[in-house]
Amino acid sequence: MNNFNEEKAREGARLLLEAVGRDPGERSLSDTWMRRVPAMLETLTEGRRPEEKPTMRTFETETDSLVVKTGIPLYSLCEHHLLPFHGVAHVAYRPEESMVGLSKLARYVRWRSRRLTTQEALTNDIATGLADEIDAACVAVEITATHMCEAMRGVEMSTATTTRETVGELSTTDREQFRESIHRADAANDHF
Ligand SMILES: Nc1nc2c(ncn2[C@@H]2O[C@H](COP(=O)(O)OP(=O)(O)OP(=O)(O)O)[C@@H](O)[C@H]2O)c(=O)[nH]1
Ligand SMILES: [Zn+2]
């Protein structure tokens, strides 16, 4: 079910322009509220629409050891101020009967992130969602992000927030391996 209402998005964008003292009738602004903002909002909220979910194709598993994907770029929208938060997600899972295509982990993170949410809820959504999608003994997700609502207004500081969620039992070795992979990814890429 498509829960995006283009007409309301258009009307809302037009009212916001009026609220900040701009004239929606200005030539340079007509496409902004009539076309660009509604299209942008439709894309950036697709994570609430199941029909937009990437196909999570699986293969017969060749391993039961932990698969770790680090450094997935993450862009989402904070539901408090409608401003972006962005950073990096790291995902790990232990396959049981089947394993998933590696790109699907990143695709899934991108799809899930496209919604108005909080970082905590998003971390939980990705971990529980992936656990439902793939046949995994356990899933772990870590997100480190910076919030524009903190950087551009309010406290006016750009800081990093880290959230973690696990589904199923991770052994101490699994946790160490996940941690070490994240460490290596962070050292290789200066995300902030
Ligand atoms: N827990 C959590 N808080 C968030 C997230 N994104 C933004 N926030 C915080 O949500 C809070 C909203 O606080 P309020 O006091 O209702 O709003 P505010 O007066 O605009 O807050 P300030 O940002 O402190 O100016 C702020 O502290 C934000 O930093 C998030 O993903 N998770
Ligand atoms: Zn905010």
Automatic annotation (TrEMBL):
<dbReference type="InterPro" id="IPR001474">
    <property type="entry name" value="GTP_CycHdrlase_I"/>
</dbReference>
<dbReference type="Pfam" id="PF01227">
    <property type="entry name" value="GTP_cyclohydroI"/>
</dbReference>
<feature type="domain" description="GTP cyclohydrolase I">
    <location>
        <begin position="12"/>
        <end position="178"/>
    </location>
</feature>
<dbReference type="GO" id="GO:0003934">
    <property type="term" value="F:GTP cyclohydrolase I activity"/>
</dbReference>
<keyword id="KW-0378">Hydrolase</keyword>
<comment type="pathway">
    <text>Cofactor biosynthesis; 7,8-dihydroneopterin triphosphate biosynthesis; 7,8-dihydroneopterin triphosphate from GTP: step 1/1.</text>
</comment>
<protein>
    <recommendedName>
        <fullName>GTP cyclohydrolase I</fullName>
        <ecNumber>3.5.4.16</ecNumber>
    </recommendedName>
</protein>
<dbReference type="InterPro" id="IPR043133">
    <property type="entry name" value="GTP-CH-I_C/QueF"/>
</dbReference>
<dbReference type="InterPro" id="IPR020602">
    <property type="entry name" value="GTP_CycHdrlase_I_dom"/>
</dbReference>
